[in-house]
Amino acid sequence: MPRGKKKCSSCDIFVGSRASKCSCGYVFDKKTNSKKINKLEVLSRLVIVPEKNKRPFYLKEFKMMKSLTERYSLEFLLVVDFGKKFDSLAYLVSPKLKDSLDQRWRAFNYKFDKSKYSNYNIGEKFGDDKQLTKKNKTTRDFLNE
Ligand SMILES: [Zn+2]
């Protein structure tokens, strides 16, 4: 990927990394831009941050978070929901929760594919618009008569 550029997932051309919209009309979702995701925010929604000794806690937790983002993604960690907070990410890296995480990871990616699919439906909308134009034409034709 060229430096300072990002790829539009709709038309595959490269645009400036800070662009919020591609010339094709594709809008970049800020939430999926991993550079903009606050790791501290991700961590604090998954685990209970202790009142004391935060420094060693963060050091340890961010290390585990790194291994989790390598296996999954930071975007995934930002949305994954367990309905509760853990004392440590150690629970998430443990083999005990791996299956559960993998399952959520698949669901996460499925949702992603689904959003891609809904983009295709825009084509059908265009079809409706065409019909509307036709109707207008008919009205104009009627007025011209
Ligand atoms: Zn584009």
Summarize the structure.
With 145 residues, the protein is mainly α. The protein is built from 6 helices and 2 strands.
Describe this structure in words.
This protein is mainly α and 145 residues long. Among the domains are: 31 residues, no CATH class; 70 residues, no CATH class. Helix content is 59%, strand content 4%. It contains six helices and two strands. It has a two-stranded antiparallel sheet. The protein is elongated. 7% of the residues are buried. Zinc ion binds next to loops.
List keywords for this structure.
145 residues; mainly alpha; two-stranded antiparallel sheet; 6 helices; 59% helix; elongated; binds zinc ion
Strand order of the largest sheet: 1-2
Low-confidence stretches: 120-128
From the N-terminal CA to the C-terminal CA, the straight-line distance is 58 Å
Helix segment count?
6
Strand tally: 2
Quick one: overall form? elongated
Provide the helix percentage: 55-70%
Q: Write the H/E string, N to C.
A: EEHHHHHH
Question: Which quaternary structure do these chains form?
Answer: single chain
Largest sheet: 2 strands, antiparallel
Which ligands does the model contain, each kind named once? zinc ion
State the secondary-structure class: mainly alpha
Mean pLDDT: 81
What portion of the residues fall into strands of 2 or more residues? Answer: under 5%
CA gyration radius, whole angstroms? 23 Å
